[in-house]
């Protein structure tokens, strides 16, 4: 990822003239963090490095993000927002297939899978991280998935009495299960099987 | 849990007369460990305590189990084997409901849920534990579930072209997903919804 040029205004923010808008500075930081995470993972992510590469002072980083873990979650969420968007072509089966393939590709061909596994793992013994993980990542991802699934209910493609949050666990949750305990492989075919089983049912008719 | 009486033969195993069979000693140890885990969880589990409560020498424990984590996994697997058995009444829907209710009850009303979450969490950064977790727990549990699901395929209740390992992720894996990232609650009703969604399908017919 190319380094964002150092902006003196951002390094030493001043009230008044010349200061870049905070939203723009935040977006720079999140882009820097997301780039590091998707290329390298969490290991070498420090406030020092992020300050250097984003051109934003450590004081500003600390003010906005209380820990590097929280900043990582925020950066990761924004970094994958486009790659993990939920398309709506009007065909829920096709759209779930597209999205789940993207998700599985991201999890298995970038450091994202390991990053999320480690964050979920660490959050089992770190209550603050667990809270931030849900606040900054998982609950927001759940809401995006649920919105697409509810649109499919409105379109008459998913039964109206189904709790869409349960579907989230049976698609993406099932993938996380294999990422965290890799007894079985995470592949595009696995994604297809998840969708087929769930939409069509596994009971013999 | 009542303490197993100390057996001098087990404390100082000798070749020849008087020694208890190794299987019996192992079973005593696993019973002791399982009792501690289901009542208290992992926090106070040490080789010292297990030796004292099971009446088996620490040397013997070290010989059979290289670490307390491995012994915990072995003890836990045996402790829950009966509670998490897969009944076969011939009705796969009823049997999955029975088993999943037992599983959810165990996960939410005993230290088992926290224990497994912590073991899965720790195994994200501890490759030896990850290997042992799969070897001593998860892959064996998967096989038991798959055997019951294959019997349902043989009985014509589940479509023959379904990969039963995917079903495992969409039932038990979905529960683990909520245990590890508790955005949504783990309840008996959640278990019922998992089974209903998967057997009947969520697509509008």
TrEMBL record, chains A, B:
Species: Leucobacter komagatae
PROSITE patterns attached to this UniProt entry: HTH_TETR_2 (PS50977)
Any one GO MF annotation of this record: transcription cis-regulatory region binding
SUPFAM superfamilies linked: Homeodomain-like, Tetracyclin repressor-like, C-terminal domain
PANTHER family assigned to the protein according to its UniProt record, in alphabetical order: HTH-TYPE TRANSCRIPTIONAL REGULATOR RUTR (PTHR30055), TETR-FAMILY TRANSCRIPTIONAL REGULATOR (PTHR30055:SF148)
Pfam families: TetR_C_11 (PF16859), TetR_N (PF00440)
Region (Disordered): 1-22
Keywords of this entry: DNA-binding, Transcription, Transcription regulation
Gene3D superfamilies on file: Homeodomain-like, Tetracycline Repressor, domain 2
Residues in HTH tetR-type domain copies: 23-83
UniProt-recorded name of the protein: TetR family transcriptional regulator
Positions of the DNA-binding region: 46-65
Annotated InterPro entries: Homeodomain-like_sf, HTH-type_TetR-like_transc_reg, HTH_TetR, Tet_transcr_reg_TetR-rel_C_sf, TetR_C
């Amino acid at each position: 990822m190319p380094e964002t040029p150092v902006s003196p205004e951002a390094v030493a923010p001043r009230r008044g003239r010349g200061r870049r808008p905070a939203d723009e500075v935040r977006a720079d930081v999140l882009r820097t963090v997301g780039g590091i995470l998707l290329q390298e993972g969490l290991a070498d992510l420090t406030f020092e490095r992020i300050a250097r590469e984003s051109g934003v002072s450590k004081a500003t980083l600390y003010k906005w993000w209380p820990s590097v873990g929280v900043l990582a979650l925020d950066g990761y969420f924004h970094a994958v927002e486009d790659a993990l968007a939920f398309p709506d072509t009007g065909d829920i089966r096709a759209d779930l297939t597209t999205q789940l393939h993207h998700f599985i590709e991201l999890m298995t061909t970038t450091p994202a899978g390991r990053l999320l596994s480690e964050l979920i793992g660490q959050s089992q013994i770190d209550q603050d991280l667990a809270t931030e993980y849900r606040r900054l990542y998982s609950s927001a991802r759940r809401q995006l998935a649920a919105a697409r699934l509810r649109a499919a209910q409105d379109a008459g493609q998913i039964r109206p009495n189904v709790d869409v949050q349960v579907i989230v666990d049976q698609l993406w949750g099932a993938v996380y299960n294999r990422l965290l305990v890799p007894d079985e492989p995470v592949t595009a075919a696995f994604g297809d099987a998840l969708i087929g089983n769930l939409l069509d049912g596994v009971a013999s008719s």
